[in-house]
Structure formats: structure tokens, C-alpha cells
Write a structure and sequence with these properties.
By secondary structure, this protein is an alpha+beta fold. The protein has 1 helix and 2 strands; from the N terminus they run H-E-E.
């Protein structure tokens, strides 16, 4: 079970990094309202989805 937990932790980190990279490519300053979804694909295997809203911060003076 320890290895499975470690694998899920690494997958979650990769999903976050991909989301941040995509937001940066769009010129976003931040990602808000981040959600994670995990689903079991088969015994001992799962997939992790991370999604959020990329935002651009503007100064309205």
C-alpha cells in the first residue's frame, strides 16, 4: 500500500505541474478553484485529474 500511495502522490504532483504549465502558456498569473478527481481504472491503478481556472490579475486604477 505504501508504494501505491507514493505513486498517487507523484501522479498528483505531475497533474498540478501540467496544470500550472498550461496556465503559464496562456499568460495566467494564478490558478484558482483547483479541483482534483481520482478514479480507479483497475485494481492497483488509478488516474488523477487536476483542473482549475487560470486567471490574469489586472490593476484597475
Amino acid at each position: 500500500m505504501t508504494e501505491y500511495s507514493k505513486m498517487l502522490e507523484e501522479a498528483r504532483e505531475k497533474a498540478i505541474n501540467r496544470m500550472v504549465d498550461d496556465a503559464e502558456k496562456m499568460g495566467a498569473d494564478a490558478v484558482i478553484n483547483i479541483r482534483f478527481m481520482t478514479s480507479m481504472v483497475m485494481a492497483g491503478a488509478a488516474e488523477i485529474l487536476a483542473y482549475g481556472t487560470a486567471v490574469k490579475i489586472t490593476d484597475k486604477k
